[in-house]
Design brief:
alpha+beta; signal; binds flavin-adenine dinucleotide; GMC_Oxidoreductase-Related; flavoprotein; (R)-mandelonitrile lyase; FAD; three-stranded mixed β-sheet; 320 residues; four-stranded antiparallel β-sheet
Length: 320
């Protein structure tokens, strides 16, 4: 970075470079999602590290297709079975990029597509892998003439100046896309998905409106006082020139990592998150969203996990 004092790992705000983190609190205690697991019934929990679910084990019964467990491989390529008992169920939480491929590879998807790749069809569903979207994000970086604490940087350089990023993003884009498998054999091969940002003109118009607002904000007296300089991605001088604003939006769009869809509710899963056409298989992750929350989605996702678990316990209690 051109800054020569290396402070190594530190939670302090120090001139030079350092390795930082945002998951430590002021006492240096680390917080992350695993804390939720620690509050669970650990004797009922078995975690397989560095393992991939390869197969969902389906069987037919009078009421339709059911699952009896999954087959997974560990880091040494050994395969194992994890089977459910009694009224147990399989819950897929492989995310928007992981859950649709698992359904495809296990025969839940569009019949012609699966058949053409010699995958036996368990349950036809035309919508697996569809309605995928990502909230488009555009930003500008400005140099602020004072130092402030970094919020998300991991390896950071701290000078008397700071770089501030002003981000504009929106949820519920109208542009969507479909996920495609690259391998119909190996679950470890990542699928491809192109999010088609701004394909729908309304999405581009929303970005232009949002960035105009950012431009207006930068012109306020409060921001003038900061005497900032532009680093890159400068906004067009004329905020009312639609064509240059649209070019700005298209050329600077990035992900904010809130991609979702692929097993959308009411299309691939029902209101109870059960895979349509199956009895004991649910999907509980960001692939079920047709719209991602406007803010960071992790809290919502964790709540959906907990909500679904509690619902399942209630259903079992009622069935007894
Ligand atoms: C760089 C980055 C920064 C982010 N920052 C934030 C933030 O600050 N706050 C926030 O709220 N959200 C943030 N997000 C978004 C958030 O992490 C995601 O929206 C959320 O994790 C999605 O949850 P999920 O359960 O759908 O999937 P994931 O969290 O992606 O979980 C799916 C898991 O399944 C695993 N998997 C996939 N296929 C298989 C398989 N076949 N077998 C076994 N395992 C499999 C994956 O490895 C992964 O661990 C960020 C995302 C990224 C990428």
């Amino acid at each position: 970075m051109g800054l020569h004092i290396d402070n190594e790992f530190s939670l302090q705000h120090l001139m030079g470079t350092k390795t930082s983190s945002s998951i430590f609190d002021n006492e240096g205690k680390r917080h992350e999602a695993v804390e939720l697991l620690n509050k669970g019934e650990l004797k009922n929990l078995k975690v397989a590290f560095a393992s991939y679910v390869e197969r969902i084990i389906f069987f037919s019964k009078a009421s339709g297709v059911s699952t009896s467990g999954i087959v997974y491989s560990d880091s040494k390529e050994r395969t194992h079975e994890a089977l459910i008992r009694d009224e147990g169920e399989v819950m897929l939480s492989a995310g928007a990029i992981g859950s649709p491929p698992l359904l495809f590879l296990n025969g839940v998807g569009p019949l012609p597509h699966l058949s053409s790749h010699k995958v036996s069809v368990v349950s036809e569903n035309l919508d697996v892998g569809k309605f995928m979207a990502d909230n488009p994000c555009n930003s500008i970086n400005i140099v602020v003439p004072f130092a402030f604490d970094p919020s998300v940087g991991y390896v950071v350089g701290i000078t008397k100046l700071s770089v501030a990023t002003i981000v504009e993003k929106f949820s519920g884009p109208l542009s969507s896309s479909s996920l495609r498998l690259v391998s119909f054999i190996d679950v470890k091969v990542s699928p491809t998905v192109r999010f088609n940002y701004f394909e729908d003109p309304e999405d581009l118009a929303r970005c232009v409106r949002g960035m105009r607002l950012v431009g207006d904000m930068l012109k306020t007296d409060a921001m003038e006082g900061l005497k900032f300089g532009d680093l890159k991605h400068s906004l067009p001088r004329n905020l009312f020139d639609d064509a240059s604003m649209e070019t700005f939006c298209s050329s600077t769009v990035t992900t904010i990592w809130h991609y979702h869809g692929g097993c959308v509710v009411e299309k691939v899963v029902d209101g109870d998150l059960r895979v349509v056409g199956t009895n004991s298989l649910r999907v509980v992750d960001g692939s079920i969203f047709n719209t991602s929350s406007g803010t960071n989605p992790q809290a919502t996702l964790m709540m959906i996990g907990r909500y679904t678990g509690l619902r399942m316990l209630q259903e079992r209690g009622a069935a007894k």
